[in-house]
Design goal:
Elements: E1 15-18, H1 22-32, E2 34-40, E3 47-52, E4 55-60, H2 66-78, E5 84-93, E6 103-110, H3 117-120, H4 131-144, E7 148-155, H5 164-172, E8 177-179, H6 182-191, E9 195-205, H7 214-232
Parallel strand pairs: 1-4, 1-5, 5-9, 6-7, 7-8
Antiparallel strand pairs: 2-3, 3-4, 5-8, 6-9
Helix pairs in contact: 2-6, 4-7
The chain binds hypoxanthine (HPA).
Hypoxanthine (HPA) binds at residues 90-92, 156, 159, 178-180, 203-204, 206.
């Protein structure tokens, strides 16, 4: 048990999927895992452990934003021995060729700052995904024929952004999509020598203003989870 996770030691698997939304953690556990049981409910940030194709897996909500995700990843790694952390979440498309429902595999995550900025100070650290996870996720997405983009994303501290000029520079420099967690996930994982990847589904688009409806969300989120689980155990 830690400050933010009520699970007993040993209750959490070495592989953890991390959606932002705790209710999505419940849905993933009920839909994809067998024998899933709730292992955390502290602050309503639900976590589950079960099995997928014989492999032990946990699904733990991270909450929204890097400050929240940082707490859960620190505790999962340092106190529960997590070795593979895969964020499964949504993102906003930032390039014309990145369409709604497409999958984005975040090779790198740019940010203005992260909770780790206080540790890294003047260092302009480049958070990047684990190569093996990224390669295996890309191979699975390809085999499933899911339209997928691999490249840099932006981890923002704000959903209600007021810096269109910054977005313009990001678009100009090839950033594929925006979300709010991956840069800190990659940085914390690197600090403790574990593997991390963010597998994202494009749920809205910054340029077109389109947004996915709820039924489209569910089916395309299933692809993302299949990709994440396959990469974790490839
Ligand atoms: N901004 C930030 N995070 C997001 C977005 C967005 O437009 N869409 C999904 N996650």
């Amino acid at each position: 048990m830690t400050i933010h996770i009520g699970a007993a030691k040993g209750d959490i698997a070495e592989t953890v999927l991390m959606p932002g939304d705790p209710l999505r953690a419940k849905w993933v556990a009920e839909t994809f895992l067998t024998d899933a049981r709730e292992v955390n409910a502290v602050r309503g940030m639900l976590g589950y452990t079960g099995t997928w194709k014989g492999h032990r897996v946990s699904v733990q909500g991270s909450g929204m934003g890097m400050a929240s995700l940082s707490i859960y990843t620190n505790e999962l790694i340092r106190d529960y021995g997590a070795k593979t952390l895969i964020r499964i979440g949504s993102c906003g498309g930032m390039q014309p060729h990145v369409a709604l429902r497409d999958v984005v595999l975040a090779m790198t995550a740019t940010s203005v700052c992260t909770p780790s900025s206080t540790i890294l100070r003047e260092l302009n650290y480049a958070p990047c995904a684990d190569f093996g996870l990224l390669r295996d996720a890309a191979a699975k997405a390809d085999a499933m024929d899911v339209p997928t983009h691999v490249g840099g994303i932006y981890s923002s501290d704000t959903f209600y952004d007021e810096r269109p000029d910054l977005n313009d520079q990001m678009v100009r420099h090839g950033i594929l999509a925006v979300e709010m967690e991956a840069a800190e996930l990659y940085t914390v994982a690197a600090r403790f020598g574990v593997r991390a990847l963010a597998v994202l589904t494009v749920s809205d688009h910054l340029q077109t203003g389109e947004a996915m409806d709820s039924s489209a969300r569910e089916s395309s989120f299933s692809d993302m989870i299949e990709i994440a689980l396959t990469a974790a155990f490839a």
